[in-house]
Input
Amino acid sequence: MKFLKPASPLAPHKNASVKPWKVAIIDDEQQVHAVTQMVLRNTQVDEQPIEFLNAYSAEEGLRLFQDHPDIALAFIDVIMETDNAGLELIHQIRNDLQNHATRIVLRTGQPGTAPEETVIRSYDINDYKSKTELTDTKLKTCVYSSIRSYRDIVTIEASKRGMQKVIAASDSVLRSQTLYQFGNAILSHTVQLLGIKTAEMYLVSQHIDLFGDAELILLAATGDEVKLNNKWDTDILPTDVKQAIIDTLASQQSSVTEEVFIGYYHTDENTRSVLYTRFRAEHNAVQDEILKLFAANITLIFQNLHSREHIQETQKELLLVLGDAIEQRSKETGSHVRRVALMCELMALKLGQTSEYAEMLRHASPLHDIGKIGIPETILHKPGKLDDAEWEIMKTHAQIGYDLLKDSTRTIAKMGARIALSHHEHWDGNGYPSGLKGADIPLEGRIVAIIDVIDALGSERAYKKPWQENDIIQYVSERSGKQFDPAMVEAALSLFDNFRDIRHHFPDHTSH
Output
């Protein structure tokens, strides 16, 4: 039995770091292998040498393609184990292995056995030659044209895959309104398209606001050293990289060495950007120039996207501040609304809601008591129990909050209106203001209802000490099916460890 030869000694590599083109010779005649390799032994295409892979049957040839999906060119004999062994192998390569990039030249010692027109029409091959036709010159010409064709196909495929990533990331940006997935996809695509062998790349922008305060923004990052972290800001930059970027912003000068390319771009009066690239292999001036164009143009896109995101984040932050202000007017100093927001988000996810719904609930929940702005301070600040008349006035805060928000067309405000109106409704119908029962109470109202109580019981108030966790659990459990939706109770109890962590990170702060 003959064995596969993974590489031929007839193809020495002058530079081990240069990746060779793989050329497969699949033929049952030893002499064909020897002659082909002798003719092509010193051939280089685009300054890359050739590495020969040898197989002596269709069966061995199939294993060769399974082990080496990146074969650039294959010379395949028609007749080996059977009269159609070569044709069957081509069918397997193209259909079973789904390899459509490798250039295939079919060779035969018996031209009349398989008619040329029929073979070319029926099989995905690039040429069909009699072995006697392939003289030295024709063989070399065939190799040059086939490998360059393979190179172009691979480049197009790589570009196509990269563009698919960009399109997918663009869709992700539109859906989630985050920037970094989009930036990473474009960064990866640019690297792939240029054939740049990078270890890591970072694109950082510095924006100076109206008051002269500078903010560093991480727009994109990709490579070996990029940390997978939920936190996406310049804190994930390695110390040396961050310092190099800061130095570049200070000097306002680009710099290039064999290992690192640092591009500086002043895109407008208030924005400057730095593209930091550490290379794994040699790079050329053309690649550097395209990187410069990439960074300058993508920074302009990100400025517009970041401005939109900045406005949205500002709005969300103001909602938290507003929620805090309402709590402080009620003399409930602390981090209640921030904890409620995070706990509500966890609850929504636990209940199987989408991340979009959970995020919206996190931003809308601070508005749950916004109606208290219309309640007299004599009632809000009363140290003892409210009388019946005062309690009726206090209950109006649900309707007041709804009336304040109901006319808004913004999703967060619309959800906030529903929460304000419904978070004091009870599962058994004994709540207020509308006496809604069961699933008639909006889901967001049912979630906020139990979270608001859990956090309030665990917080210190002017009229009470914080409850122990076991007492809170008992209280909530006893009111399952009465005040609270049983599904909400089950979900909340399963998340108590998470709630404890949130309380630890956002403790109450008391004022004196």
